[in-house]
Amino acid sequence: MFLLLLLAGLLLQGDAQDQASLWRGNDRSGRCVYSFTVPSPVEASCPQPAAPEVEALKVRLGVLEMLVSQLSGKSLQPPGGRQGAGDRAQAELQDALNRAVAERSLLQGEKERLKREMKALQLRMEEMRRETERLRKRPCPQTPAAPPSHPQRDRAPTRPLEDSAWQYGSPAFQELKAEVTEVPVPDSKQNQTGCGDLLSVGEPVSHRRADNIAGKYGVWMQDPEPVSPYGPNMVWRIDTVGTEVRQLFGYEDLEQLSKGFPSKVLLLLDPLESTGATLYRGSLYYQRRLSRTLIRYELAAEHVAARRELPHAGFHGQFPYSWGGYTDIDLAVDEKGLWAVYSTSKAQGAIVISLLDPLSLEVRRSWETNIRKSSVANSFIICGKMYTVASYSAPDSTINYVYDTETSQGKAVSIPFKNKYRYNSMIDYSLAQRKLFAWDNFHLVSYDIRMSHSPAT
After folding, report:
1. Are strands 161-162 and 378-382 parallel, antiparallel or unpaired?
2. Is 91 helix (H, G, I), strand (E, B) or coil?
């Protein structure tokens, strides 16, 4: 259209009609091109330097068009893979943020718990400080001064001083006289040790509730023959939930246990399995995790003094009590020494009782009973007699069987026994307290017992 208009305009100019020309032909790409030529009335010829400038301008315009095309293509390109990668990165960042928030919440909770424990410890330290000050200010008992010398009083007979235990005269040396009374030797050893038959079990008494899920079940105990530096009132506790149970918590007495203030924490070298541990003569006896190996760990030296496999004993769920918990090997202490309650493939799941050497852990003697271990909830040993508990969850259960190692005979019994919190995972006879200790669904409880023979007085 432009060419036609231009041609028409030139045709209207009379002077230039003879000089205009129209040409038609194919270009290099084969397309038809019309060319209209008109000579310039001013310039005789086109200046040659203009051609390179035009070419350079064309090149620059081409480059700009290419860049604009690329930019337009990127802006219009659908998200595709690059958008998917962004979504994945955003999801990963969100997950990391969620984990960080959760960890922060856990750390905040742990921080609050530690603050509470620190506050309780500070209160305890303040109580101890006040008690120390009180004892320090308390006057010491004064030694009575010798009466002044008086000649007449010295020559006169004097009445000796008296108290509830002694009669004495002058502070000089004197011979003490004692009256000896013959006491016949008891006919039975039971009167000395309190051994006999279990007659009844009292109501459970709660001492403490565990702090967290790790304390759902565990074991707590006292050493009947403690070794220095630990005294007879020391109480020990192990939370046994988890795969790496290594912490042994020590408390000065039952009061400190109830308050939750441990005075000692020991880290066991070998992880412990289940609730069958016990204390005896300064050592902790327990079963090593995932094995039938028994370990004697000395508390004072904090090292393993002996380790030995219990021959043919099942472990890690082969012959547990009915409540489970990998309770294949249950160690116990009574008036006669250190015991192991377990089973073997040869016994076909029936309870086997073995008396162990407390130093070497060797088996001294064994008894095989006729009651299956998985049919009872737990067991304990008093005076060489093993007693089994029928249920770990029934609130009103019974002690249903007793086996006497003296006679190698067992019989059914029915002694009422209460599971107050309905998940009793540990029941042991405490020789130190002459009571039953138990761990019932986060709670540390004890039971008074009555035997057919009481200790001699």
Report:
1. unpaired
2. helix
Of 360, 356, 302, give the one whose Cα is nearest residue 329: 356
For residue 78, cis peptide bond before it (omega within 30 degrees of 0): no
- Residue by residue, DSSP assigns 320-373 as -BTTBTT---EEEEETTEEEEEE-BTTTTTEEEEEEE-TTT--EEEEEEEEEEG
In 3D space, the residue among 203, 196, 198 whose CA is nearest the CA of residue 413 turns out to be: 198
DSSP string, 362-412: -EEEEEEEEEEGGGSSEEEEETTEEEEES-SS-SEEEEEEEEETTTTEEEE
Stated length of the chain? 457
Instruction: Return the exposure string of 305-316: e unless at least 16 CB atoms fall within 10 Å of the residue's CB, then b.
Output: ebebebeebbbe
- DSSP string computed for 57-74: HHHHHHHHHHHHHHHHHH
Enter the DSSP assignment of 88. H
Beta bridge partners of 317: none
CA distance 233 to 431: 13
For residue 107, what are its two tokens?
């750390």
| Strand-pair partners of 382 | 385
Q: What is the pLDDT of residue 184?
A: 40
**Sheet of strand 409-418: strand arrangement:** 378-382, 385-389, 396-404, 409-418
Q: Give dist(CA 342, CA 373) in Å, integer.
A: 8
Query: Which one, of 448, 392, 399, lies nearest residue 420 by Cα?
Result: 392
Taking alpha carbons only, the member of 438, 431, 348, 345 closest to residue 384 is 431
Beta strands in 73-181 (DSSP E): 161-162, 167-168
DSSP-based helix, strand, coil % in the chain, nearest 5: 25, 35, 40
**268, two tokens:** 């066991």
Judged by average pLDDT, the poorest of 13-17, 174-178, 322-326 is 174-178
Mean pLDDT over 133-151 rounds to 58
- Nearest by Cα to 341 from 350, 356, 351, 326: 351
CA separation, residue 394 to residues 200, 422, 445 (Å): 18, 6, 16
> Are 237 and 249 spatial neighbours (Cβ–Cβ below 8 Å)?
yes
Least confident span in 62-71, 97-106, 162-171, 355-364: 162-171
Q: Which among 448, 426, 424 has a CA at the least distance from the CA of 435?
A: 448
